Structures are given as C-alpha cells and as structure tokens.
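Ribosome-binding factor a structure dump, as promised
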Amino acid sequence: MRKFEINSPQYINHQKKEANYKRILSLIIKDVKGYENFIPTLVDLQLSKDSSHLVIYLSFDHYEKKALEHFNNAKGFVRSELARNISARYTPDITFKLDEASKNGRNIDAILKKLEEENGS
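structure tokens r here:
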C-alpha cells in the first residue's frame, strides 16, 4: 500500500479536500433538526485516501449516546447536503463517531482539580 508523502501534491490535495469538507460540514451540522437538548461540535474528520469514506468526529455537551444516534439517523440528510455543496464525482459514505479525546480531557481536568483541592486543604 502506497502512503502519501507529506510534501507530495496528492497529500496537499487530500488536506485541501478535508479542510473543504470540514468547512461545509460545520454548516450542514447546524441544519440537522431535532438536537435542541445537545450542542454538537465538529471536532475532526478523516477522509479515506480514495475519498470514498468520511469519518466525522463529533463532541456533545451532554446526552452523547442519544446525540450520536440522532446524527447517525440523519446521515442521509447530511450526505445529500454534502453532495449538493461539493464538486466531486462521488460523495463519500459518512460515519459519525464520538470524539473520545474531549471526554478524556474533561476527566483529566476533574482528576487534577480534585488532587489540587486535596493538596490545598
């Protein structure tokens, strides 16, 4: 399997596609209806090398499982809106995933705060 070299034209083109998808999807996600109880944040995305699959990492303030399920149900809407807004031969298949890094960061912050309170007392 051939990998992209960092300065190769293919790698730069791939990065531009990802940046464009991220810009467009951040607007499309705001148009998804029915998420009044949670606020979605597009954290990151990964586009496969052949541009056939797109993994979107989302973060939510609460109700994470319910929110992720809601966005998986709205996958068709998101993909059709993406197709209307990009100029590509094919629209990639979309997979929504929960961004675990933000959750882990909150847990680490809570632990550090607890340790700070214990040592300060």
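Strands lie at 40-47, 53-60, 93-98.
lmk if u need the other ones
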